[in-house]
Design a protein that fits this description.
five-stranded mixed beta barrel; mainly beta; 1 helix; 7 strands
Length: about 110
């Protein structure tokens, strides 16, 4: 699993039939403190994530295809969760560091 922030959509007019009707998201990878780590991934959205949201990515090929029930599809990375909050406990101070809660999603 990887932590990332959705920064936009990827549109491809020509693609594999396995991607028809699926949204591709451009995701900046995050380090444990919530800061961009310098990398990015394009992921198939399985849950309806949107720009600005912090998400969990499954970047394991076969596992991603199993989540999407698409065996043999050219899919490696899938968004499997929207993160509400991440805390990181520090042993030396006992303080908790948080990426901060995100605004609640409105169901439209």
């Amino acid at each position: 699993m990887k932590l990332a922030r959705v920064v936009g959509n990827v549109v491809s007019t020509i693609n594999s039939p396995a991607l028809d009707g699926r949204t591709l998201l451009l995701c900046d990878l995050l380090d444990p403190s919530g800061e961009p780590s310098g990398g990015y991934l394009i992921a198939v959205d399985a849950i309806g994530a949107g720009a600005g949201e912090t998400v969990l990515l499954l970047d394991e090929g076969n596992g991603a295809r199993q989540v999407l029930r698409a065996p043999g599809a050219p899919i490696r990375t899938v968004v499997v969760g929207i993160v509400d909050e991440v805390t990181n406990g520090h042993r030396d101070t006992g303080a908790l560091q948080s990426l901060g809660p995100q605004e609640p999603r409105s169901e439209a």
